[in-house]
Fold each of these.
Amino acid sequence: MAHSSPYASLTRTRASRVAGLVALGLAVLLLVLPAFASRGLIQDLFFILTMLTLAQFWNLLAGYGGLVSIGQQAFVGIGAYALFGTVILAGIDPVPALLLSGLAALLLAIPTAYFAFRLQGAYFAISTWVIAEVVRLSVAQWKSVGGGTGTSLPRSATGSMWFTQAIETLFDVRSAAARDILAYWLAVLLAVATIGGLYWLLRTRRGLALAAVRDTMDAARSVGVDAGRMKWLVFLVSAFGTGLTGGLIYLQKARISPDAAFSVTDWTAYVIFIVVIGGIGTIEGPIIGIIVFYALQTLLADYGSWYLMVLGLIGIAVMLFAPRGLWGLFSDRTGIELFPVRRRLTGGLLSHPHHPESKDHG
Amino acid sequence: MLALDTVSKSFGALTVADGVTFAVPRGQALGIIGPNGAGKSTLFNLITGNLAPDAGRIELMGRDVTRMPAMRRCLAGIGRSFQIPQPFSRLTVFENLMVAASFGRDMSEAAVVDSCAGILERTGLIAKANTVSGSLSLLDRKRLELARALATDPQLLLLDEIAGGLTEGECRSLVETISAIHAGGVTIIWIEHVLHALNSVVERLLVLNFGRVIAIGAPGEIMASREVQEIYLGIDI
């Protein structure tokens, strides 16, 4: 046999290089958009970006960590309430207080994981929901942030928020519009950081370990993977990110109540829908999912409860006929991956042309 | 290499390991036989740390590992295959080995690419390196079990019915691979019902029944013993 090239492990593809450039361009476009876009568009994009971020964190939990949580609203709610609590009671500026949203969710995640990790599968899922309900009921007792009826961010806090003065003069807008632009920019940064961070994580060897733990925990342990530590890692990271996003969502809304902030429909059911129809266990999936979700919501906005029934039916249809979601369907046919994490062995004996090297994508 | 001292384990009223005591010197290949339900796979789970014993002591290279978790025992030099293959089904064959090599030896991914490729060549899986492991045939799944265990660079290799369900030819090629690994100095403990495959590799046989060690010794003596023949009567040899 002729001298063969050395073996190598590759992840990048041509599509991923193009995708990287397009993503960079898109991020820049999103950042400069407030210069010409209407306030309505900025608000819609804020909704899309924050839901996308929530979906990516749920995807990390369920799609990569195998931890199907239906209690993520606990972290959205606690993050939002941490923001309102510190702004109203301690008088901290809402922008730096966002960090406390993430930290509060992280703190809540520790006892939640401690109890929920004792359970598997459906029992784990139910336990996260139960814990979220307990937190909702406890927060409803917190009188200084409005108890069960909720409260608003004081005008004194929102009016003088960091950066809003500069945005008002930069774009020549009123303070309410400036707040929307600020929240939108933070949402862009959060979404970009989340997708970038997730992609980075999956390409480190921790990404491989995560996939191994998800597929079979016993075997993962037997090859030296600390399965317990991987589960803690994804649960805590997801909680922190979800809490941060929750804080940001309610910073933009400026009004909160326990029922809204701890809503299982808004912060978990919709998020699961987005991930599942787009394609669980891929970074592309939630991006496709949020576009479909937003389109459906806009189309069906006037049909009340029919909207939810249609969402449910579409969700069921996708699970039955395309279990890997719309992106999975597309990726299986075309072999295209925008955020490839597959390690492909090349070179050596595989550099021979008769070896079927390009077969078998995920 | 490995020493078990009166190791016991029960699930409720069912005793699956009953005062198991034996030792395997470095470089030896030991075969374990016994009827279904004798506690063979349980014994492996106790050795690898996937199960914790109720009583007794397990030593690996002179170190007490009785309470050591499975992932640490892998780092300490134990590699295993599972009776029912447990591939990381959504990863490719190559990625399965990369997980094992990178974490089992605590090295960076880049540092283990060549050794993973070498193991794939030796175990006949190189052409399937980039195939998703969930779609493999039974033979290839068994090969992957072996390859993944090897990727952790074990000093003690535990094989659980790796020849079961294979055709004569497939079995022969697997035995050749295992013999070569053994010749390379790896200590092996092998549970197997396919006795001719087992006896062509191992130097000693251990017979397990109802969680107890019935006999241990040279394969010829063991197979000739009346007690062993009684236990195996009616069982496919």
Amino acid sequence: MPEEKTPNGKNGKSAGLVERLKAGVKEDLESLKTELPAKAKEQVEILKKPTKTQVYTSIFRHKHDDTPRNRALGVLSNVFLHLHPAKINRDAVRYSYTWGMGGITFYLFIVLTLTGVMLMFYYHPSKVQAFRDVLYLEHDVPFGKLLRNMHRWAAHLMVIAVELHMFRVFLTGSYKKPREFNWNVGVILLVLTLLLSFTGYLLPDDQLGFWAVTVGTNMARATPLLGHEGPFGQQLGMTPYNDVRFGLLGGSIVDANALLRSYIWHCIGIPIIASIFMVLHFWRVRKDGGISGPAPVVLDSEVKEAKK
Amino acid sequence: MDWKQLWEILSAPDNVPIIAMIPLLAFYIYLAWKQAHANDVLIEQLAGDAALAKTHHRKAWPFKPGWAKEVHVWPFLLRIEFLAAIIVTIILMVWSITLNAPLEEPANPNLTMNPAKAPWYFLGLQEMLVYFDPWIAGVVMPTLIIFGLMVIPYIDTNPLGAGYYTWKQRKFAIGTFLFGFIILWVSMIFIGTFIRGPGWQWFWPGQTWDHNRLIYEVNRDLPDLFGITSNWGKGIFGAAVVGGFFAIGGMLVHAFFRRHNAKDFKRMSLLQYSIMMTFFLTMIGLPIKMLLRLLFHIKYVWITPWFNV
């Protein structure tokens, strides 16, 4: 092959390659020295304003400045916070009016869900395992005792908080027009809270839970019409093997089936039902015009009687 | 005085929430009463001063004309919610570290717990088992409580007191609710927890729980006191007594209600009024039956072959 001059070097192809490589490496080194430090500087500048980064703006769709607009957007554009209005009555944030019991109840429900899911990892709803699982949880699982204690006390606290919430709502007359329906949803949630706590009582499978549930479900024997010891129950053909108590326990005594049933009601059934009613409850609070007060007092003489 | 017994009951882990409820309830009743009183004073003042009533901001709290009516939820509400969550978490943490959840022996159907108690929030209903048959205490009463609570918004026709604490504008409603909640629900839970011992017998606080205690107590039925022996007689007599309670009680409540709640009475429809009467009288019937039992040892009032009341 005849020698040819290449644009890259006089010593032929290989020589041109070396030259090119050298030049390229030199350029790269130069870039490392100048361009990267410049980029680093730029990066530091960008990081000084984290709210301008692409990651931040992709998550939060408004600025972080302390302006009324952003304060409103901070609530409205957040799925967890948008349950709230952007602005509320200045007196409505007073603790003495609401006692915060509804919110505390919801928070306790979240705590119970989290601790409950963790407890489920260590628990088998069977007669052979259940009690041993609780012992194992208490003595061997790291923080297992704390987990169980927290679940139990949060449950008791939730019952108290629900009752105090209802007490406050009654005392402030918050069930009155237009909130009648939401009061009813609240009553259902109260019942569901008690049922949640009650179904959980049996799960350790100890004497305390066993006899509490025995006492509780024995009452179902006496259900009028539907229980075998209730008024008109026998006339309708109720026996211990087909009445409403049998349906609750999955048997005529509190045993393996009752344990499984209360486990499923406790961990899946009632939480789902309660969640649906909670969604409804919170949504209606907003739709009925936010929390009821503190409203200006109305005088007896100002009430307009509806014409009949 | 058996201090050990008293301490054992008071410090049983599951009873701690009930102990905690005493100061909590007392505090919140005080908080509500304080605001209700302030509002009632304001209402009286405004009712007597028409000029002031036109310009007043109508709240017992301080108010200046320049203040914004509304505040931003972020941060003014959210910071409170955040704080509340932290405080509740701390309380729960401390509680869970210091006090262990109860765990008894493994479940044993052959070894009956004595006393065998329901969870604390159902003890009011269990206490009712002393005075009523299970179908009333365990089934009818809970149902009536739930429905009774549900009808409240539809039978309370009083438009006053919506959204603020007051006593004077809603005496009947608040009085009834306090009676139901504090006397019939909370105090029954207390009795069930702290007073009832083995055999569900009455033990005063500090009295030793004697598992062998016998109480000689002859309970009679009301028809027996009147010498009625036939089944038909007992049935008809009982129906008459229960019916009489509702009729006479209804008349008394009616006489009271139309005088002292004249406006509410005028507003209520027949349906609203009769539903209110039914629930009210049934609720009043509870302590009456309890007193009949405790003072006169009367077990049943109405005896039929199918059910007893």
Amino acid sequence: MSEVKFSKEHEWIILEGDVATIGITQHATEMLGDIVFAELPEKGSNVEKDGTAGVVESTKAASDVYTPVSGEVVDINQSIVDDPAKINEDPEGTAWFFKLKMKDISELDSLMNKEEYDKFAKESSN
Amino acid sequence: MEIKKTSLNKLHQDSQAKFVEFAGYEMPIQYSKGVIEEHKFTRSHAGIFDVSHMGQLFIYGNENLTSDLEKIFPLDLKNLQQNCSKYSFLMNEEAGIYDDLIITKLEDGYLIILNAACKEKDFEILSNILSKKYKMELSNDRALVAIQGPKAVEILNETINGVQNLTFMTGDWFDYNGQKLFVTRSGYTGEDGFEVSILNDLAEEFTKSLIKKGAELIGLGARDTLRLEAGLCLYGHELDLNKTPVEANLKWAISKERLSNGGFVGSDKIINQIKEGAKQIRVGIKPKGRLIAREKTKIFNETELPIGEITSGTFGPSINGPIAMGYVDKEFSKIDTKILLEVRGKKHPANICKLPFYKKSYVKGVN
């Protein structure tokens, strides 16, 4: 399993073979507040790096979820659609969003590591 | 312009509030527990809301003032008992709404609670109509603290003995640390509760005493989900200058005694709309599934013709599902009418439903 990488749109991504699992960060959930709705891409669809690949809504507002890499959606986490509160409980674990079969693994190179992301998140929330 | 702060600002900071700017004030949107927990706590225990940004307008005068205010508000103020409150509106000649408000008759005049974003303008409009005949005071030295929920009466009565004797939409002056507080049994959450008008200097200590007795601070986020579940209008969303009280389905707030003769600002339009019916009307809307339809979402009938727009929409924590209010053409306003809501380019099914979404639990008196 590769190291966890992070995007500026507050998604995390981890690669196993050529399948990447993607979710939103703890920091993102703290900014959003209580999540009450989640929409995921369709299984079998293709998504493009930095394109929208879902929506999360808190009591106050809707936010797009972006995919940090391109690929084919091979699995989605239906449990967070059925119970969106799970996203607040375990955003970087069991509440992953979708899995992609990656087209180009080098797309990971431009993403941040944990240390870089923590710094970025801290600065962007100030 | 510099952002304004209420006298409870420090207490909010110390309580880990997340702040937003609201009507020029730095106000808490939520605290560390978050909107859903705060909402549920209010429904099961007692929530404290800092609503000091709202306007507290005192107008002093006698019977002449009552007659003059009847030319403005669609209320039977002559027969309103002292210390009784009414929900009403400040309107223009076309019955468009400048603001919605609560007016209470006092021994020496009236107290009007106004929306924060409208209060300065309201003051100007009212001073012009009343042509400066009466002393008017938009208070700067008083905070307004609401306590709402099933435990509110018990908690507040321990701090201010006697408030338990008030009934819904009545108020009175009470002594607190040698100062006078004006307390009304009212609020905007659908729960039993009170609003306390208190001098700024005493507000923090007073609020802390409520917290010590088990009440908790609640932010504007939960205030919004609570009022929406209770089917209550929010100015700037359900109400504005392009809406009339009849369209807003608030006919109940217009005194019957005033409908026969009119004589208040906007009365011709109101009387005509009541007779002829309004083209659009405010309704409750329940989207199917978990879909949230926000303000400005377009509403369609089953054959996909546009029939209206959502004015507020969110997730209702006590309903455990999405809820909304909006305006639709009258013929589609019947309960259980099937409609479609366009969210992110797709049309989703929803139903017109009864308001409120959540049953109110007010302690009603005889008035």
